[in-house]
Amino acid sequence: MYKLLLIVVMMSIWLSLHLLQVEEQLAMKTLFQGKHAVNRATHAAAQQVDTAALGEGVFRIEPIKAEAAAALYLQQNLLLNAHGAPLAGSFLKEAVQVVVFKLVNADEIFPFTYRNKAYQYEVTLQRPGVILIIKMAYPRVFEVLEPIEWHIKGAAELIAG
């Protein structure tokens, strides 16, 4: 009888460890999907050239178009609505928040170093660019892990020529 009990206990321990491993792998996949979405959003935003300034020979990013492009790419890549809440087919359960959207334009002196101590982020831009930080929570599947939240950071520069 005690061997049967030992087998049941060992199977439950083995199952718990297996679920922990699966949960960790899903968390890493979610983090990578978030990072790819941030990278795509910053690159899309950084390519929104101000054509009027370009006509004068100045490389500038159009702020309104840049913010709209970043939001659109985040929505499309993470399956979010306009308010950052997940849509029906999304793997996320909680809303994604844009905590920093910083546009560095031609009025700065380059190379420009952006520092944000609150999110422990530093990046140096050689030309006009965009800095984006989002807050994203991991949607636990088996609830083996503690809740995880990330501040995912990204930056991109305007590609000239």
Beta-strand segment tally: 5
Assembly of the depicted chains: single chain
Q: How many helices?
A: 3
- Largest sheet at a glance? 3 strands, antiparallel
Radius of gyration: 21 Å
Written description of the protein model:
The protein has 161 residues and is of the alpha+beta class. The protein has one domain (2-157). 41% of the residues lie in helices and 22% in strands. It is built from 3 helices and 5 strands, in the order αααβββββ. The protein has helices at residues 2-46, 51-55, 63-78, and strands at 97-104, 112-116, 121-125, 129-137, 149-157. The mean pLDDT is 90.
Task: Note the topology.
Blueprint: H1 2-46, H2 51-55, H3 63-78, E1 97-104, E2 112-116, E3 121-125, E4 129-137, E5 149-157
Antiparallel strand pairs: 1-4, 2-3, 4-5
What's this, in brief?
By secondary structure, the chain is α+β, with helices and mostly antiparallel strands. The protein has three helices and five strands.
